[in-house]
Amino acid sequence: MIPIRLPEARGPITAHLFERLREAPGATAPPLPSAAPDLEDPDLQLALFACYELHYQGFDDVDDRWEWEPSLLRVRAMLERAFEEALARAVPWPEPVGPRDVRRRLNELAAAADGPSVSAFMRREATLEQFREFVVHRSIYHLKEADPHTWVIPRLRGGPKAALVEIQADEYGGGRRERMHAELFRGTMRHLGLDDSYGAYLGRVPPITLAISNAMSLFGLHRRLRGAALGHLAALEMTSSQPNRRYAMGLRRLGGDAVATRFYDEHVQADAVHEQIAVHDMCVGFATEHPEQTGVLLWGAACALTLERLWAGHVMPRWERGRTSLAGDSVASSPV
Questions:
Q1: Does residue 189 have a pLDDT over 50?
Q2: Which Gene3D superfamilies does UniProt cross-reference here (predicted)?
Q3: Given CA atoms 28, 32, 34, 36 in this order, what sign does their dihedral have?
Q4: Given 111, 159, 179, 297, which is the most exposed site by the fewest CB atoms within 10 A?
């Protein structure tokens, strides 16, 4: 197994943080520089991502005891405050609605999502190198697919809990490793000649790609934001089926075989079913039990859609000008 190591720092916060994380936990550390509330600040997003990663696979050059080290949790709280402020600036808090109106408002949010269509571009115009870059961006989440939302399961009960478990069980392949969505995505990466090891491209992606994953972790790890996590997941499921159909068509156009496209083909059918479960059984059910959480739920959905739009606004202009959307040079290619 390839070691997972801390990436290169991207500013004073990560330089200070990573230096500390490579030491033994427990010693008093000088305070970190303050973090600006900016969704596209590479220093903030990478620092927060690294803090969250300690709750997932961790880093081989970081002592596991850092995960619950109080001094690091204080640092993470400071970073989260800046991130939440940035999200609140970018995504206005929706007006709460009654539980029976949750489905309608989720549909309105999804229908109103605008911005350049990455999936249409990938289907018709993307070069092989651009598709490989697209997969590199997505690898930051897809190699841990479903994990951030799984944090919410023990914070639910009854019907909404059962609905979330049903969705997550599919994401994890129904108990079969080869059918896990993260494993299917590895097949896509290998077909494209990419490194399919966990976290291989963490140092290459822009801050908005990290912000997409950071929002999922923020919502999943805080009980007060469990409604936002459910709304976020519902928005993903509601806007997934047709884009994944286009991704599969685009990859076939570029020579992708059945193994390469299976990840996308799987989501065309699965997410059409998941959408209904997520919206009605999970979100409406949760809102019925917790009507005070409807604003939080809708905000989580709006965050998912807004971050995706901002990400598309980063990659599309660069691809249209023939430039890379990643830090540094384009990813090294190998034959399909």
A1: yes
A2: Heme oxygenase-like
A3: negative
A4: 111
Average pLDDT over residues 12-22: 94
Residues contacting 31, CB < 8 A, separation 6+: none
pLDDT digits (tens, 9 = 90+) for 238-258: 999 899 999 999 999 999 999
Torsion of CA 194, 199, 205, 206, to 10 degrees: 170
Q: Are 39 and 310 in contact (CB under 8 A)?
A: yes
Within the chain, which residue ranges are assigned CATH 1.20.910.10?
Answer: 99-320
**Who contacts 246 (Cβ-Cβ below 8 Å, separation ≥6)?**
119, 120, 122, 123
| Helix, strand, coil percentages in the chain from 3-state DSSP, rounded to 5 | 70, 0, 30
CB neighbour class for 329 (10 Å; exposed up to 12, middle 13-18, buried from 19): exposed
Taking residue 255's Cβ as centre, other Cβ atoms within 10 Å add up to 12
User: Over the stretch 173-187, which tens digit does the pLDDT of each residue have?
Assistant: 999 999 999 999 999
- CA-to-CA distance for 190 and 182, rounded, in angstroms? 12
Q: Which residues have CB under 8 Å from 116's CB, separation 6+?
A: 312, 313, 316
In the CATH scheme, what is the homologous superfamily, with its name and number, of domain 99-320? Answer: Heme oxygenase-like (1.20.910.10)
